[in-house]
Amino acid sequence: MVEKKNKMTLVVLSGDMDKVMAAYIIASGAAAAGMEVIMFFTFWGLKAIQRDGILTGKGLFGRMLGVMNRGGLKAIGPSRLNMGGMGRWMFKLMMKMHGVTPLNELREACIALGVKLIPCDMSMTVMEIDCEHLIPEAEEPVGVAVMLEHANESSVQYFI
After folding, report:
1. Fewer CB in a 10 Å sphere around the end CB: N or C, the chain?
2. What integer is the mean pLDDT of 70-96?
3. pLDDT tens digit string along 10-29?
4. What is the pLDDT of residues 87-100, one digit of tens each?
5. Which domains occur in the chain, in start order?
6. What b/e readout covers 3-21, taking b as 16+ CB neighbours within 10 angstroms?
7. In sequence order, which residues have a C-beta less than 8 Å from that of residue 7 and are 6 or more positions away?
8. CA–CA distance from 71 to each of 32, 34, 45, 129, 155 (Å)?
């Protein structure tokens, strides 16, 4: 049996604002408490580590997906009440009014605390997302086997 470390593995599947925010809050809190933190971003969760703007793939479907699924934290909307983008604007304004740390600052805090931001290689291939579409702090893409190794030795695992 593998000895569990003071480590957390967090799989980020969702690209919704509220879920990405929860993931970054949990990760930064764990890292600030001294845990080693691994965040594995797959499918829509990749938006949380993509550069801002329209970043498209090479093929027809990849280009279409890039236009419809604009990357980056600025384009992330809430899972409910998005209302054609109005929800994103409203939630950002409400968070600012209540002194809640914005997503980009939460991500920067995770980076400063040494959280490893790891993209899923298979998801990137399927969605035609290249490494240059990701923020510079993202690690090299890996497969599920590497994520499972991290999860196996972690005392805490989350799937968001």
Report:
1. N
2. 73
3. 999 998 889 999 999 999 99
4. 777 777 888 899 98
5. 5-159 (3.40.1260.10)
6. eeeebbbbbbbbbbbbbbb
7. 35, 36, 37, 38, 150, 153, 154, 155, 156
8. 27, 30, 10, 10, 31
